[in-house]
């Protein structure tokens, strides 16, 4: 197992390099870079650089000058290029970026006057809170409910819970979030929960117990909005996995030997049925952790990594874009490895050391 873990850790390096290289090449062809953004701002165009670029994917016109920059002093253009590092060739900029990333130095934001590392650390608590609690609650609800539905397959319990799951899955998370605000956050009816933020304004003056309650009080509505739409797929997956295993011959044999139903389900079926569910855990965690909460962050004014990455993409803030991409990818690869290791905890018969490559 140790050899497999070492191989996977070493594989992270070329994977990260390849992902960064592909995205760097795509960015080079995208219109409306930071230089164009600054030129548009200097010339008073509120629409930004993207409204100034027509046609092709380069921010430089065929004549070698930036589109729309004809009215500016060439020295100013050169100063802007130097400020953003675009006075150097693309390969040199990419190599400098890679060297910095190896030391977790992501440079400075183009538009926020702060280091990218500081921005990520600042936004991390919000994303950790949303992603961790949503994933935890989703699995705590979905797995027992899916097992129960498999045991009671075809019963009234199975039918009405399936109906509730379908309704919850059909309601978009952001729409449910707006409904929760209107009903429970002082919108039109009740004023039980706070409307925005992760903590209250007087959080620092509270005792430890009050801070914990205040933290969870702010999380109730956004977490509920995210969980309702997240647990449907996992619940049905758990049910189908258990139904598939329950019908196999080894379960019939175990029951014929006189084993109790709980021993059959949790001593034999659970181990095999959970493998597919564990396989989907890393992708579920990453999607909820970084991307699934974007609209929830906006609606509840929670300034997390999802919103940071989105704003960076809109503003062409390349250091923030690549910094968050690097973190997202690295965490995703590590969590995927943890998921593989968890396989062996659920089913010790799995031996990764016997795999080649």
UniProtKB/TrEMBL annotation:
UniProt membrane topology term: Multi-pass membrane protein
GO biological process, one term: microcin transport
UniProt-annotated location(s): Cell inner membrane; Cell membrane
All residue ranges annotated as the ABC transmembrane type-1 domain in the record: 124-339
Domain of life according to the entry: Bacteria
GO cellular component: plasma membrane
Keywords on record: Cell inner membrane, Cell membrane, Membrane, Transmembrane, Transmembrane helix, Transport
Main location group: membrane
Membrane spanning residue stretches: 9-30, 126-147, 159-185, 215-238, 273-300, 320-339
UniProt function note: Probably part of a binding-protein-dependent transport system. Probably responsible for the translocation of the substrate across the membrane.
NCBIfam families: PRK15133.1 (NF011712)
Record protein name field: Inner membrane ABC transporter permease protein YejB
């Amino acid at each position: 197992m140790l050899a497999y873990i070492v191989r996977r850790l070493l594989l992270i390096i070329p994977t990260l390099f390849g992902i960064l290289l592909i995205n760097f090449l795509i960015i080079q062809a995208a219109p409306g870079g930071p230089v164009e953004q600054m030129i548009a701002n200097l010339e008073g165009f509120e629409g930004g650089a993207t409204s100034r670029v027509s046609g092709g994917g380069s921010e430089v016109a065929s004549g070698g000058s930036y589109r729309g920059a004809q009215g500016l002093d060439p020295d100013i253009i050169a100063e802007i290029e130097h400020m953003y590092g675009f006075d150097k060739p693309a390969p040199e900029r990419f190599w400098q970026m890679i060297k910095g990333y190896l030391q977790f130095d992501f440079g400075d934001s183009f538009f926020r006057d702060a280091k990218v590392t500081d921005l990520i650390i600042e936004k991390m608590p919000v994303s950790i809170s949303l992603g961790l609690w949503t994933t935890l609650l989703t699995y705590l609800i979905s797995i027992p409910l899916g097992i129960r539905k498999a045991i009671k397959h075809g019963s009234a319990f199975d039918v009405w819970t399936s109906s509730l799951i379908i309704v919850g899955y059909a309601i978009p998370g952001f729409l449910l979030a707006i409904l929760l605000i209107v009903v429970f956050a002082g919108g039109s009816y009740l004023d039980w929960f706070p409307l925005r933020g992760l903590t209250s304004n007087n959080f620092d003056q509270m005792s430890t117990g009050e801070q914990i309650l205040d933290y969870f009080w702010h999380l109730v509505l956004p977490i509920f909005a995210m969980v309702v739409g997240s647990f449907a797929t996992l619940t049905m997956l758990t049910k189908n996995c258990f139904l598939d295993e329950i019908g196999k011959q080894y379960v019939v044999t175990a029951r014929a030997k006189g084993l109790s139903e709980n021993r059959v389900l949790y001593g034999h079926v659970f181990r095999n049925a959970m493998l597919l569910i564990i396989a989907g855990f890393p992708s579920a965690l990453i999607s909820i952790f970084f991307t699934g909460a974007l609209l929830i962050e906006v609606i509840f004014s929670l300034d997390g990594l999802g919103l940071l990455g989105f704003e960076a993409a809109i503003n062409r803030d390349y250091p923030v874009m690549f910094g968050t991409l690097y973190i997202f990818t690295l965490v995703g690869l590590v969590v995927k490895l943890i998921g593989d290791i968890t396989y062996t905890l659920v089913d010790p018969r799995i031996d990764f050391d016997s795999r080649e490559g």
